[in-house]
Amino acid sequence: MPMQYLTADEVRDAERASGDLLANGTLMRRASHGVARVVAAELNRTGGCYGRRVGIVVGAGDNGGDALFAGAELARRGVAVHAVLLAPDKAHPAGLAAFRAAGGRVVPTTGGGAALPAGLDIVVDGVVGIGGKGPLRPAAAAVFAALAPETTVVAVDLPSGVDCDTGEVHDPSVRADITVTFGHPRRVHLLAAPRCGRLAVVDIGIGKPSERVAPRLFSFSDEDIDWPVPGPADDKYTQGVVGVIAGSHRYPGAAILASGAAVTATSGMTRYVGSAHAEVVSHFPEVVAVPDLAEAGRVQAWTVGPGMGTDDAAEATLRTVLDTDLPVLVDADALTIVARRPELVAGRTAPTLLTPHAGEFARLTGTALGADRLSAVAGLAAEWNVTVLLKGRITLVADPTGSVAGNDAGSSWAATAGAGDVLAGIAGSLLAAGHTPQTAGAWAARVHARAALLASRGAPIGASTLLAALRPAIREFVRG
Ligand SMILES: NC(=O)C1=CN([C@@H]2O[C@H](COP(=O)(O)OP(=O)(O)OC[C@H]3O[C@@H](n4cnc5c(N)ncnc54)[C@H](OP(=O)(O)O)[C@@H]3O)[C@@H](O)[C@H]2O)[C@@H](O)CC1
Ligand SMILES: [K+]
């Protein structure tokens, strides 16, 4: 099942719908127990709970309450727990009473600030959760800045200073090794995944929000991906023929990488159109390659743009392709052309997938991409009535209805020249196989990221190495 990511308001809506469970403190008891369990498991993994040392940083709201109740539970298990209260007058009263009663120690405040003792195994961030706004304030920032670098940080609900709805990483903010959240993941857990570390979702018995607001963010799990497999009645045509328009005789790299990715991604046929036809065939003899669009033959989808140039001839080719009623993936140079001629895609009713990186996105919209990538990508998709795949460590694929599929690449090794050409080839093949632009883009991003991890194993890679790892990566997504 795809994972859904909620806004802070949607979480509050779901909590309110839990009625008594919220009012009588059951939700907080379950939440704090979940935090304590995760911290205890981490301590047990590294030698046990008894006699270990944990710090908790406690803010003014219920996020601090969670941390205090969790601290109380850990203290009862024999852990020495030290708390810094950032707003002593506002600290959750019942949580603080439980913490003191269990033997937790509150660090005295001197000169308006307090620091945790040295030598802690784990520090729990209970500064703010879904009620937080903006960066860490100075007192909290000083506590985290003073921690030894090897200290494990467990965030309650989210790393404080990172925006719950946009994932904007304010400066300063907390970087967590583990984040424990409750009921449903929040948008931040995908949009700022590298800042959250490992995510633990604790069931506290809350339902779903009464309605979702756009953009509705979700992610595919590995199990949701069902890579195209030829059936007994299939031939090379029925699985989808993808046409690739990329590169040139002078710069054949993009042509070879995009065509090679298309050949590898599905067993349907790949056609190539452009002046690098001889180079493409010398690398991939199975590609039917011709210099001119008029000779191309039939395809079920086009991938157009990488390294094709932006001159009048390129524009004429792009116009011809976009005038068809076939699915088209528009990448790289074709995006530059579309930025100056939006009318080329504006009237399209056939599936259209634009695949910009941040710079190309700014060219398309006329404004730099801000911190709220999610709203920006969903806005462009709705305004132009197309699907937009925004590249990055977290790839976002927005369709015009306000649904956005996100994918965390898990590493940034794919940030290398030519990797985008490979992605364009994969996604084009999936379009030709009949998938929607959102599914094609999101699955392509996931398998591309997996290929980068397999290829890299901790060392830098180039796009050819990534392409070589594509087949083993796809194997992980073939079912049955
Ligand atoms: N509701 C439930 O059923 C359940 C809720 N649960 C938990 O409650 C959390 C939500 O609690 P919440 O609503 O009290 O808000 P919360 O995130 O603690 O922060 C608000 C406080 O922080 C302050 N503040 C704001 N920005 C700040 C900053 N940058 N730096 C420093 N301080 C800042 C602001 O105070 P201010 O100083 O601005 O007056 C305000 O008082 C949720 O994330 C989950 O952990 C769980 O127990 C499950 C059940
Ligand atoms: K937090």
UniProtKB/TrEMBL annotation:
GO BP terms: nicotinamide nucleotide metabolic process
EC number: 4.2.1.136, 5.1.99.6
Positions bound to K(+): 63, 125, 160
Keywords: ATP-binding, Isomerase, Lyase, Metal-binding, Multifunctional enzyme, NAD, NADP, Nucleotide-binding, Potassium
UniProt-annotated binding residues for AMP: 391-395, 420
Cofactor binding note of this UniProt entry: Binds 1 potassium ion per subunit.
Gene Ontology MF term list: ADP-dependent NAD(P)H-hydrate dehydratase activity; ATP binding; metal ion binding; NAD(P)HX epimerase activity
Chain sites annotated for binding (6S)-NADPHX: 62-66, 129-135, 157, 254, 307, 357, 421
Keyword Lyase: yes
Physiological role: Catalyzes the epimerization of the S- and R-forms of NAD(P)HX, a damaged form of NAD(P)H that is a result of enzymatic or heat-dependent hydration. This is a prerequisite for the S-specific NAD(P)H-hydrate dehydratase to allow the repair of both epimers of NAD(P)HX. Bifunctional enzyme that catalyzes the epimerization of the S- and R-forms of NAD(P)HX and the dehydration of the S-form of NAD(P)HX at the expense of ADP, which is converted to AMP. This allows the repair of both epimers of NAD(P)HX, a damaged form of NAD(P)H that is a result of enzymatic or heat-dependent hydration.
Family: In the N-terminal section; belongs to the NnrE/AIBP family. In the C-terminal section; belongs to the NnrD/CARKD family.
Quaternary structure and interacting proteins, as annotated: Homotetramer.
Name of the protein described by the UniProt record: Bifunctional NAD(P)H-hydrate repair enzyme
This protein's encoding gene: nnr
